[in-house]
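request received
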Amino acid sequence: MKRKFSSSKGESKNAAKEHSGWWGDGPVFVFLYDKRKKEAITNGKAKEILQFVNDSEQVLHESEALRIIRINNEYSHPVLFVDTGKETGLNLLDHLRMAGYRLAKWAENNSVKTLMIPPLKGDSPKKRNAILQGLCHASYAFDKYKSKKHEKADVEYLFADDMEIDGNSLQSLFSGIDIAKNLINEPGCSLTPATVANIAKGIAEKYGLSIKIRGENELKRDNYNGILTVGRGSKNKPAMVTISYATKHKKNIRMALVGKGITFDTGGISLKTQDKMYEMKSDMSGAAIVLAAIQVIAELKLPIAVDAILCLAENRPGENAVLPGDIFKAKNGKSIMVENTDAEGRLVLIDGLAEAAELGATHIIDIATLTGAIQRALGNSIGGLFSNSEGLAITITESGDECGEKWWRMPLDEEYSEGLKDKVADIRNIADGGPGAITAALFLKEFVKKDLQWAHLDIAGVAFTANGYKYTEHGATAFGLKTIVETVKRYSADELR
Ligand code: BES
Ligand code: ZN
Ligand code: ZN
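response:
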């Protein structure tokens, strides 16, 4: 589906007159309403139109949250009613995304090319953007391994006035989302640390970003022993990729984005069980997201310096694999006992955190499919947020709210750090019992300099959906990418002030 969105002052009437027959070639008019609240979302003669909503004789089609009703308006024209209140617990922007998504899917299935959307009540670019995001989400399909490809329709949304729409920003964001999803959905055999590094190189070249790729030798030279330790069991060698986006603006802030990039997590010698293990192809979601984020940030030319650091390794058992009980020394000199080789994410991330500090980061956001415990605590709709900074935590939460990505701030209570103490080494990689997502975050905290503003996003519960979630079908959600881009945007606004 090509993504087209346009505004058209005064075209609405003409378009209606051109409309022929059933769906015809002309636009189908859309009316958004909240069925439960009995409230119109779009402007127009709300009351008159709403009375048809409950009049079943007029209903020509009903599915999901869509009803199509022929009303006796001037043109005897079908109107598409979209219930924007079908789901509970979503905010209006997310309801609008769902509406945009459903509309696009419906239009695609019914070969409707153009949907005419009247102005919304209390309209704003943000609201329109949300509808358009739904359209963009609907156009994604991971069909490269299907012999029959998804036929992408060419759906266009027409807004019946000339309110400014920032189509370029939207295109940039969604080209990032598509890239992240494609990487995450790719099976483990065809996406190794080296493949990701190569793709990153291509992106860096395209956007004129500087890039540093550390392979095994460079990791050894620079003491990045966490990534090396995790990657030891696989013939697909580990790597760390650092991409830097510079800006000519004054630099009070340097933001580092650190992503967990386990291209497949078997658990290693502490092998996982077979149940849903295939989903561990998505254990590099964090790395995919920070890579996509820096592309979007560079494309939008945000006035803030950003580094994306991808911590890449494949975690699998092998002749040379790290054994439970093995001890290695982290870059900062602390010795770490690997009690469980399946708690590998935190081991690769501490190298990324060290790299961020070396580059002079003032703010660090790491993002990782880190713990099953966060999934048990927050489920598949809410991501876990940990931070040592009130300001950063608030900015991330508010950014997420705007983007349809919910974050819940979790405690970083030092009392639980006790469990990480080891009898032989300085620290071990899992705590006995206790709250797993919190102890994982506390482990990371041990490797973050106190004066840095740092946030850790645990997306283990939200990165991958088996049966579809909101406007995402089976597979990668890229959850967190929108939040990160929005967060960097908000810091950019501060930077320019
Ligand atoms: N990649 C997993 C976490 C995960 C679980 C991601 C479910 C997505 C869905 C991580 O490396 C892991 O295996 N964590 C262990 C840690 C444990 C051994 C302390 C876990 O959560 O079980
Ligand atoms: Zn693991
Ligand atoms: Zn993992």
